Amino acid sequence: MNSIGGGLQHERTALAWERTAVSMMVAGVVLARYGAAEVHFSVGVFGIAETVAGGLLLFWAGRHDDELHSPATPAPAVPQVELTRLIGALTVLFCAVALIVAVALSFS
Amino acid sequence: MIRGTVSTATVGAVSRLLPPDPRRVGQEPDYRFTLANERTFLAWVRTSLALAAGGLGAVSLIPDFFGSHVLGILLLALSIATAATAYRRWALNEAAMRLGEPLPPSRLPQFMAAGTAVVGVVAAVLFVVETI
After folding, report:
1. Residue ranges making up the domain that contains A70
2. Which of A1, A64, B73, B114 is 20 to 30 A from B35, alpha carbon to alpha carbon?
3. Which of B22, B23, B73 is opposite residue A106, by nearest beta carbon?
């Protein structure tokens, strides 16, 4: 049942990936802005890395959407287990760094 | 002995948060359900990122507000809990769908609602205390 048939399920899913990518980019910019200015430049580097990761994810989401809609290509893998793991781990790491920044700001 | 107990507890915690690859069990379900599960996972990730950005904003943007750091840290703790359980929930749902079993119950929505309500009440109390 991994065929790409009718319906807009794929488009909604691709848009969900794109919204998540944009959220990652915005959160990365916020962390880079305040982390670098008020805690340490390495926090800024991590924020920029999160923003770049969001950009790459956005790029991938666009390509993935094209693959899903193209009749010339075989159906891509569903589900995206590795990417799901990666995004989950990256989000946990991001939140942990943000918490460290908040604690550092609280005691500074 | 203590080290062994700690390492066993750590392994247990990691295995609870990182269930095995759901593709190892059952049969592939209707792909629409898989995509819906993926969208739900992404919605939890976005919720977590929004809470983290809100927490950073509370600490950085309103430093003069009494208790802004408490609010920020509460929001960030909530964001970590949400992010840490999002993958687990996705993998368990995926495995259940592949095995044709009912979806496992989750306390994450209740936890999130209660946590957000607590943060809201704390913010209101701090605002009143500062105003008086």
Report:
1. 9-106
2. B114
3. B73
